[in-house]
Amino acid sequence: MGGRLSRVLRSFNVESRARREISKEKPTPAPRHPGHRLDRLGDRPEIQEEISKKDDRLLSLLKDVYVESRDPPGRVKDGGAEHLPCKQVEKRLTKLGHLGDLDVKKVPKGKISIVEALTLLNNHKLNPQIWTAEKIAAEYSLELKDVKCLLEFFIPFAVKEFPKETRKAI
């Protein structure tokens, strides 16, 4: 209700208010300072002479300055060559899981895909004596400390079914 009322008041007599604003005389800008103009420099020959005159003292100081610059060693600058990768990342084939075509085929050494992560976590959960952190690190080309952290902090979900008698008690 308040929106309608404010809209009506806003649009009341809009055209006449707009005409009144348009017909007002525009304000004139403030005058510029007379020293502001750079055109006057051309009229005075002593200023032009001062600008074009060489200062011997400043020239001698400039000659004393010696700058030596060297490019960093080992950089080759090619103009139009294609950009080649700086470092070749060594990749390994993944241990394909049950997703097959959807899974990533190659991953860099030291990393694993999601399917591999779920597989190794599940294997460790089912057989922790066989799938130790050392064996997993060797199998998947990972660092031992990373594998230990992975096994400690990431646990796959376990689905538990409660017997019917227990369900009623809950």
Automatic annotation (TrEMBL):
Q: Which organism is it from?
A: Piaya cayana (Common squirrel cuckoo)
InterPro entries the record matches: NDUFAF4
Assembly and partners are described as: Binds calmodulin. Interacts with NDUFAF3.
* Any GO BP: mitochondrial respiratory chain complex I assembly
Question: Where does this protein have compositionally biased stretches of type Basic and acidic residues?
Answer: 16-27, 36-45
This chain's protein is named NADH dehydrogenase [ubiquinone] 1 alpha subcomplex assembly factor 4
- Please give the residue ranges the record annotates as the region Disordered: 16-45
Pull one GO CC term from this UniProt entry: mitochondrion
Q: What is the lineage of its organism?
A: Eukaryota, Metazoa, Chordata, Craniata, Vertebrata
UniProt family annotation: Belongs to the NDUFAF4 family.
- What top-level branch of life does the organism fall under? Eukaryota
